[in-house]
Give the backbone structure.
Amino acid sequence: MKNRKGFTLTEVLLAVMVVGLIGVALASLTTAASREAGVGRSKVMLRNNLSLFLRTLRNDINAATYINMGAGTDPSTGGLLFELCDNKSVSGAAITKPGGGNGCVTYTFEKGSKASGVTPAGATRGGRIKRNRSTVLNNVKYMPRYEGYASPSFRRVGNSGVASAIDMTLIVELDSAQTVNDIVEETFLLPNGL
């Protein structure tokens, strides 16, 4: 008998099966990693947009001499959140500033649409906050008071009729995965107790 070197059919099939299993495992890991990287990039973009919104709002509040909180506005239907003016006194009377003031900035909320799977009842997703009719923040979720969170929520805080701060609560979510969201609670100190 001749001594033949080589692999048997069983050994070849076993090797192909092991390589195939490793390939499937690597493909599923690559797909999962790619999906997570996409969600991660979306989260970074969401936080960047949120950071820009907060910076713009903080600058507008610091420049304001008068604030109208839009009392009576119901976020469940949308409307005026507040108006920040740098050309009015605390009482609302017009004032002239050296170099002139650039007037008032209005912040409004446009409620999004009801979609399936939104809880609690009455909540919506895809809302917008606008600054002078230009969108400054997308994907704001409207939440009626639920487990302590109402969103969007802006309220003045202070004693004896003079506000010292604005408390804000927002829930902002990702387009791609509504279950991934950020709850932002921020307090803005008001200059001169507006």
In short: The mean pLDDT is 78. The radius of gyration is 27 Å. The longest strand covers residues 134-146. The CA atoms of residues 164 and 192 lie 8 Å apart.
